[in-house]
Amino acid sequence: xxxxxxxxxxxxxxxxxxxxxxxxxxxxxxxxxxxxxxxxxxxxxxxxxxxxxxxxxxxxxxxxxxxxxxxxxxxxxxxxxxxxxxxxxxxxxxxxxxxxxxxxxxxxxxxxxxxxxxxxxxxxxxxxxxxxxxxxxxxxxxxxxxxxxxxxxxxxxxxxxx
Length: 162
Description:
Elements: H1 11-20, E1 23-30, E2 33-40, E3 42-46, E4 49-56, H2 61-68, E5 71-83, E6 93-107, H3 111-126, H4 134-137, E7 141-155
Antiparallel strand pairs: 1-2, 1-5, 3-4, 4-7, 5-6, 6-7
């Protein structure tokens, strides 16, 4: 990371960002151009790294790309706020926190894991722990991304002048 002064290494702070963010951007290989799709997600932890669960249609471009090359990148950001600079357009910026991870995407086939992935997704998105039946889970595909590399970054708001 070029800006070491903005790097977040505290696992608890990274976990807070993942809990606070609602949309994950999933980047896939698509021949000559990358393909990025915003998705709702739920998360678990495995060996100190996040595992993300997303859902979608039973067939489509995203699934085809994962089957062809499961190496993916995810990006999450929140706490976004404009940093104003008055009449100086070059001085504007944004406060934010973000997480970027690289990992392997898999289409979950196990019915029990599909239910658990959807339960985590609904818990994360709604705060409610819905029971998910195999019948419910069978109507969608569930993706799992196991993160192998992770970085996080923060640019806080500057102190206000009084």
